[in-house]
Amino acid sequence: MAGRRPESLDATIADTEETGGEALTAMRREVGLLRDTDDIATTAPTAPGRQQLAEPVSRFDGHGPEVNLRLPEDPMPWPPEVATTVHRIVQESLTRPE
């Protein structure tokens, strides 16, 4: 860009900086919606259960497209690796653009 159109370099860099700032702000907002506000560093990590899936979905409500969460009604608890995977999939789906 500097070699081909040096007169537009300053405007291009300013646009890139502004776009990067907007993306960072949006990412911080998304992370804030997904962050567990009850995290305590001294608590041992546990695998999230079905009941924990509704929390990030409800925090996202009103900040993007409508989200519906449907889970199987099987009363058996999920193995930790399944629960963690499902939780991450729900989190990831909430961060995807429309």
Structure description:
There is one protein chain. This protein is mostly helical and 98 residues long. It folds into two domains: 1-35; 46-98, no CATH class. The protein has three helices and no strands. It has helices spanning 9-34, 50-60, 80-95. α2 (50-60) packs parallel to α3.
* Rg for CA atoms: 20 Å
Report the structural category.
mainly alpha
Helix % is 40-55%
Percent of residues in β-strands: under 5%
Task: Count helical runs.
Answer: 3
Largest sheet, strands/sense/barrel: none
- The end-to-end distance, rounded to whole angstroms, is 32 Å
Query: In terms of per-residue confidence, which ranges show pLDDT below 50 for 5 or more consecutive residues?
Result: 40-45
Query: How are helices and strands ordered from N to C?
Result: HHH
Strand tally: 0
Label the overall shape.
elongated
Count up the domains.
2
Mean pLDDT rating: 76
Name some characteristics of this structure.
2 domains; mainly alpha; 98 residues
Question: What order do the helices and strands come in, and which of them pair?
Answer:
Blueprint: H1 9-34, H2 50-60, H3 80-95
